[in-house]
Design goal:
heterodimer; A: about 140 residues; alpha/beta; five-stranded mixed β-sheet; 5 helices; about 15% strand; B: about 150 residues; 6 strands; elongated
Chain lengths: ~140, ~150
């Protein structure tokens, strides 16, 4: 009986270690808030981006704008750092520049939003990204409703 | 013996699911069946499948044209270069879409429409005009990117 309990204890301890490990690994490559069942894949621009401020923006929303945070969790699956392309640049280079200037965009028919790459750190960029995430998440909400 | 059959069946199901998940786009309700070849450079099949689903939801007419005129998508690097597309007359109903796994989804959708436009031109015996296809993908980009 004592051996059985020891085996069980080892087994469950290993499972708990595995789950905690997985949680941290998942959070390296994406945003996972287990308490709100909120999983959002995050992708950074390797050269000009900073994935950390996307996650910090999501944490900022969780703390300060709970309703918006719930909406983001429901209508967004991926947040990616990328310049938006809003038209075919073969028909005019100015259109390409217009897209690059945008703070971000939402792609209709998806649950993906894009944010303009930024290496900036600090409170300003976190708040700005939080605002952009809300704006584009609302577009996703409008589409799926 | 029964255990063996169950194990083999599960294995076949897993392999079948994997093949379906990455190498086929199937939409029974619209009779749309597109094979997506393996890509070893970008592993972009899921990006292509998501772009097709976006077209289905946002541009039903263009989606119908894709389903009617394209049977195979080759995601490997082609004459369009990285992030581009290509259509070879010899390929008939096959188009090349060389976008990345994490590529901009709207761009993937636009390139699919651009190359579908060339496939239609070819099947109708017309010249492969770039201008017509730039305009077709431009319409898609303006329709699906919201900012």
């Amino acid at each position: 009986m004592q051996n059985f309990s020891k085996d069980n204890l080892t087994f469950y301890t290993l499972i708990i270690i595995f789950l905690i490990g997985s949680y941290f690994v998942i959070n390296i490559f994406s945003y996972f808030d287990i308490t709100n069942f909120c999983y959002i894949s995050t992708e950074r621009d390797i050269v000009r981006g900073n994935e950390k401020t996307i996650k910090q923006a999501l944490k900022y929303l969780k703390k300060n704008k709970k309703d918006d945070y719930k909406m983001v969790c429901k209508y967004v699956e991926t947040i990616s750092e990328k310049y938006c392309i809003v038209a075919d640049w073969h028909l005019g280079e100015s259109l390409l520049r217009e897209g690059c200037k945008l703070p971000g965009c939402y792609i209709k028919g998806s649950k993906t939003i894009y944010l303009k790459p930024s290496e900036e750190t600090g409170e300003n960029i976190i708040k700005k990204r939080a605002g952009d995430i809300i704006k584009y998440s609302n577009f996703s909400k409008e589409f799926w409703n | 013996m029964l255990k063996k059959i169950v194990k083999i069946s599960i294995l076949i199901l897993i392999i079948g699911f994997f093949i379906y998940r990455y190498f086929f786009y199937i939409d029974f309700s619209n009779s749309c069946y597109i094979k997506i070849k393996p890509s070893f450079t970008e592993l972009s099949n899921s990006n292509i499948k998501e772009a097709i689903k976006i077209l289905k939801l946002t541009s039903p007419d263009e989606y119908d044209k894709l389903c009617s005129n394209v049977k195979i998508i080759n995601p490997n690097l082609s004459c369009g270069g990285f992030g581009g597309g290509c259509f070879y007359k010899s390929s008939g109903r096959e188009i090349d879409i060389s976008t990345a796994h994490s590529g901009f989804l709207a761009q993937t959708a636009a390139i699919i429409i651009h190359e579908t436009c060339h496939a239609i031109q070819y099947q109708e015996g017309r010249n492969l005009s770039e201008q017509e296809c730039y305009e077709a993908d431009d319409v898609i980009l303006k329709r699906i990117v919201e900012y």
